[in-house]
């Protein structure tokens, strides 16, 4: 008996796995994945995104409005002396920029903060990798690291000043000390949370210890390390401002305390506002760097999705 052959109709007929939804997508292009949105749908999407952006900035907008209107309409007249409205502070900020004072103070603070922050990141990442990888070194250094980790950086500011003077060395050192421990602890945590299966697979492929650190451990620990780096960036700025208030002739901390002592209250608030904006900018820059070094995670996730 001859085997029946399949006709063209039976070859193209949908199988039992086909559903009504699949047929609808086949005959209606608008239902296919990745099909373009209509103009009305795009307009609704943009409106929703704009509303979310406004809602996300709502608290900041309300705070700025309260700062502008509160000293004028909601507080006694004497309050304006110690809390000037926002437009007065912005005028003072513009004057400081116009005469070049703000740029000089900002450059001094940035150079000190960047130097101490860079020293802290390099040394903390290197030591964190060694401590997390070698258990004997961890047991030896952990008690000492715990002692210094729980000692506030500002509590040691007089010690740094006495030993290193009131020059640049003491300020850079206190910044490096404050930024060191967040990076160190997050580096240790990031290395210890690497999937052991990845390490075994890398060793089975014959990778050396250096290649293992370079290709497996560091890429896996990058998100956790950058969490510590972002914390250290904030700490370096805050500690530096406090150090500049004690003994300095330039810097944002010096600008704030000198304006307060000279009763230039708008200039003082202009310096505080500059510190806030600087911290926000540093955080966004570090987030961008983290995304750059973590692109491989997004690429792998998109391929496996």
TrEMBL record:
**Region (Disordered) location:** 1-36
In its UniProt record, which GO terms are filed under biological process?
transmembrane transport
What family does the entry list?
Belongs to the binding-protein-dependent transport system permease family.
CDD domains given for it?
Answer: TM_PBP2
* PROSITE patterns, per the entry: ABC_TM1
Domain (ABC transmembrane type-1) spans 106-286
What taxonomic classification does the UniProt entry list for its organism?
A: Bacteria, Bacillati, Actinomycetota, Actinomycetes, Micrococcales
Record membrane topology: Multi-pass membrane protein
**Can you quote a single GO CC term?**
plasma membrane
What name appears for this protein in its UniProt entry? Putative ABC transporter permease protein
Q: Which organism is it from?
A: Arthrobacter globiformis (strain ATCC 8010 / DSM 20124 / JCM 1332 / NBRC 12137 / NCIMB 8907 / NRRL B-2979 / 168)
